[in-house]
């Protein structure tokens, strides 16, 4: 911020500074003309040179803005100003006020190889003024001139060195800023690519989940509906060929039993594919109703809580979390013997967390029996559902101390 503010002030001073120094030199020289013993011709000469210097500065203000920095035009104006200031200082030492302009313009007007010579010439003018005017008279004044000139050169060298170090520091800061901007740009690109990759992974996970669900349904249809229909056809064929009514009734009853069983399997498969609770409600409302209905049906106190700002989730995410809750409540009703169950749905930035706790008898998670044909979806099935949408599933339980399960899935908003 300081550098940005300093540059406009420097440019402004470079514009009006020479006029101010020239004015001060003219006023002080005019006031000291008699003291320094200027003749009439010297007065006229200094007046003429002052007009030329003013014309030079006006020309500089008009020409230099369109010229490249440290170009030939800048060099011409610098040495032209020095020559005028040297002659004016020779006529009257107080014109050195105009000559001092060369100290602060050399670094940005002259090429690097000419900066030191330009400063030395300005130091000659200033040293001549400081010993009383040019040329020095007598050995003492010449010695004084040499000493003053050496001091001017030392001071100029010192400040030039400081200026170079400052320029190096500013250049290093500028390079650091550019590098930081480049790094920030690369980081933003990486974040964008990561977000795109995350979205792509979610889509792939969803597609994989859909494909897995289709394979599951295909297996269930093959194992239940197809076999049931085959059995029904077999029983009806026996009825068609039966020789007495009693035999026909037995096989008709068997066919009806198979039909009822197949219908139940079909309803269960359809329910698992598309939860009816989500047809009209969002996930929080559907979970609220599911938990309340389960509590009324089982007589167990069941509480549901939502934390964070609820959002409309993607259908696949909502269905997965609802199915996990349904299966967890079913497990609690069958096995936990709990007196209280709590379900919490938490919206946390880019993640959704589902926690289900009960105060039942608990179990050893390492000793869970394998799923049987008569069993439910099971803990492994809930874990698979969560992992299908790039989530995670954890279980904490101990015999006699209840059970707590948690599913954490990405917060993917509704895409319609």
Q: What are the key terms here?
A:
single chain, five-stranded mixed beta sheet, 416 residues, 70% helix, 12 helices, alpha+beta
- Helix percent reads 55-70%
Residue windows where pLDDT falls under 50 for at least 5 positions: 1-10, 372-376
**Rg calculated over all Cα atoms:** 47 Å
Average pLDDT number: 79
Count, helices:
12
Number of strands: 5
In order across it, which strands form the biggest sheet? 1-2-3-5-4
Percent of sequence in beta strands: 5-15%
Structural class assignment: alpha+beta
Please write the string of helix (H) and strand (E) elements. HHHHHHHHHHEHEEHEE
- N-end to C-end Cα span: 47 Å
- Please tell me what the overall shape is: rod-shaped
Description:
By secondary structure, the protein is an alpha+beta fold. It is 70% helix and 9% strand. It contains 12 helices and 5 strands. Strands 1-2-3-5-4 form a 5-stranded mixed sheet, covered by helices on one side. A hairpin with a 5-residue loop joins strand 4 and strand 5 (403-410). The longest helix has 102 residues, at 139-240. The model is unreliable at 1-10 and 372-376 (pLDDT under 50).
